[in-house]
Design goal:
The protein is built from 3 helices and 4 strands, in the order ββααβαβ. The protein is an alpha+beta fold. The model has no long low-confidence stretch (mean pLDDT 84).
């Protein structure tokens, strides 16, 4: 089991498909390792139109989900998501503008 630096961490993660340079960034309470399958399922079967459209053009697997950083609280995670979306956009990545999807995970 992985050791996380905070007792109740929030992990910012990215999801990218190898077929293009688009990227979805969000956060989850706890470990993405424990939620990886749920993250993929919510992307594929959720109600967010941006994610549904994004997934229509490529298959996602567990290896497409990666950790960006671990933070101590939800407010920090929300701020980090905004930062990382802006950062990757500045590098030319297409950012999928979807809502936070892990609230019920």
């Amino acid at each position: 089991m992985e050791s996380l630096p905070y007792p109740n961490p929030y992990q910012v993660f990215g999801v990218s498909r190898p077929s293009d340079s688009s990227l979805f960034i969000d956060y989850v309470a706890g470990s993405i390792e424990q939620r990886r399958a749920n993250i993929i399922s919510l992307i594929l079967h959720g109600t967010d139109a941006a994610l549904k459209g994004w997934c229509a053009f490529g298959h996602l697997s567990d290896c497409d989900v990666f950790e960006i950083e671990c933070l101590p609280d939800q407010a920090s995670a929300e701020e980090a998501v905004r930062f990382w979306r802006a950062y990757f956009a500045s590098l030319g990545e297409e950012i999928v503008s979807a809502k936070h999807m892990i609230g019920d995970a």
